[in-house]
Structure formats: C-alpha cells, structure tokens
What does this fold into?
Amino acid sequence: MHSSNKVFRFFLCSVAALLLVFVLLISIIGIKNYRPSIIFYNLDQNISLEIQKQINSSAEKKYNFISLQGQNIKADALKNKKLFKHASLIFTDLNYSSRDFFIKSAQPLSSSLLTGMPASLADSLQMEEGKIKYLPLLCDFYQLDINYPYYLQSKCGNINFFNDLETFAGLAASPKSPLLFAGKDDRELINVFGMFVEASYGTEAYKRFSSDIYNFYEENFKDNHFNQLFTDYINKLALESGAFEASLKKLQTLYSKNLINKEVFNLDTQSVILYLNNNYSAAAFLKLSEHRKINSKNILSYKSIYMPSFEENYDRSFLAPVYVLAKMSGGKDIDRIITNLSINKQTELSTKTGLAPVQKNCSVADHQADDVRYWLAASNGPSIPLCGTLPSSDARRILADYIRSRVQEGL
It folds into this structure.
C-alpha cells in the first residue's frame, strides 16, 4: 500500500515537473519572439510607411507596427491601456490632446535631439519641468497657393498684407473663383478660419483664442448637454473675441463681394485640387501636402506664400500640422531609432513624404519644403491648427456650421 502511494506521488511530481518545464519553454519562446509595438496614430499612410522603412533599415530589433485611427488619443489610451502602455514609440500629429497626453505619460528625451533644429521650432515645444516629452519630425503647412500667370496678368503689386491679396483676387481674370478653400470639410474650414484668426492679431491672440476653446472643451465635454453649451460658448466668443469677430467679418466681406466662390461650402479638398488643375481659381488656401496633389502639368503655375497679416506686422506663428514622436518605453535601440529619424534621416523623410524637415541644414527635395522650413524658422515657430483644439467631431461640426452660417448670412 505504502509502495503504491510512493509511486503515485512520484508520478504526480514527475507530471508537475514536466508541466513546469513546458511552461518555462513556452515563456522562453514567447519572450524570444516578443516584438515591442510602435503605434502610428492618425498618420497618413505615406508618412507611416516611410517611417517604418527607415526604422527597419537601422533597428537591431523587430517591431510590431500598429496603425490606429481615432479622434482623441487621451481617450483612446484610456480605453486601450495595455496597448498604449507597452508601446515603445508613438507617432502622431501634434494637437492639444496629444500634447497633453505626452507631457503626462511619455518618457523624457535628450535635449541633444534639438541639435540642428531651428530655435523657433525648439522653443515652441511645451515641456514638463524642462523635460522634452515629444519631438517634431516633419512639418506640413497651411499656405496660400497663388496662380502665378493670373498674378502677372493682374499687374498687382507685392502681396504684403491681406488687402493686397483682396486687390489681386479682384483683378485676377479667373473664370470660376478668385479665392478658394475646402469649406465642406469641417476640419479644413476650421483650420482655414484659424489662418484668418492668426493673421488678424498675431501669435499671442491666436494662442489665447485656441487655448480658450480647448480649455472649454476639456472642462465640459462630458456634460450631457455639451452640444448646447458649446453652441452658446461660440456665440459668446464671437461677441467677446476681437480676433474671432475680425476673421468672421473678413470672410463675410470676401464672400459678399464674390471674391470667394459661392459654392465654397460644398467643396472638399479633392474639388479644390480639381479647380486648381483646371486653372479655375486665382488662389487657394491649402496645406503643403495638398499642394503636392496638383498635377504635374499645372503645379508649376502655382507659387506658395504664407498667410499675409491683416493690417500690421504682428509677431506671427503660422498654422502648421507637425508630426511628432514620443517615447513610451524601450532602451538603446529605441534611442538609436529616435536619433536616426530626427537627425540622420531627415532628408529621406522629407523627400519621400513631401513635407518640410525639422533639421535646418539638411537637404530638401524642392523649394516648397525649403520655404516652409524658412517661414517656420523666421517666425515664432508653428502653431497647432485650430481644429487641434477639438477632439470631437460633434464639436467641430458645431463650430464649422457656425462659421458657414455667419459668413453666408452676414454679421
């Protein structure tokens, strides 16, 4: 009897030992095959693919690349804590929500990574106790594309201020539309409106205006009556903000004088590009990345300029979507990737994406990217586009509809 018990206990111990060895083997294999993740959040495919290419060409480890689309990175990080917590790097556009998330959650980066970056761009970074928590990689830019043949025919002088642009728009022999933008798209309309706000009173006025909107959103977006609260807030802001009022009046005047196409609020970005491809517009408000979509036959007809000031030369800080990275975890290989992308591979990233680099001395593909780099360096650096204050599509719709109604109905 005792002998059979010993045999049974030996059998159980043997099975337990085998199971332990099996679990250890599975764990070792899992650790060996584990790939840390790199997240691309709301990034265009051409940008994320080029970044992946550069990472794969120099990294010692293998990484799991994850592309995500969302409205609010802070909210998505809360819903997917495990995914975001264990990510090594996150690449996204800089907006108020992503900036706050990185300041709170990302690991500090070395100040040496700012080497070679224009001072205005480096100074625009919001830090936490002097620590860098996110790093610019590439810059897009909200600009004006001027149809140069129309400009020469108009015999208009230099476009130094906004009234010069109005004069040119009135003189240009455009068959369809003097001035144009994608007014159907809530995001683009809000950002173009932001261009007007920044041009009306300059950097500080724009930053106060955009910060006020974001702070109101953050304080009230969980309220069940947020839509009504935000509608009331926008009406109040229009009465109290000089920059808001001046921008609405300027757009309404242009619209009433037929200097803006009456169909502008039915046009998306693709429609704007179609107008430009057919020389139907004297000038258009659009991004550098959208300028790249003009066909090769017509693109040389357009010269890009920055948004001119309304009346005075205030300090300027042009609206520019900036694509950034943040380090969430990882060691030397991740640090090597960050240095490679932000310093060593800037020419390749700029050339392949068509965006402006953040290194002031690296080569660029053409004068368009070089102009954007210069404009940002010569100003107070980039400002977050106005849509970056509103993570919610409902909030964007409310603001965009308000702008549309005021411009079309008068002030």
Notes: Residues 21-33 have pLDDT under 50 and may be disordered. DSSP finds 18 helices and ten strands in the chain. The CA atoms of residues 142 and 390 lie 18 Å apart. Strands lie at 37-41, 64-68, 87-93, 135-139, 142-147, 177-180, 281-287, 302-305, 322-327, 356-357.
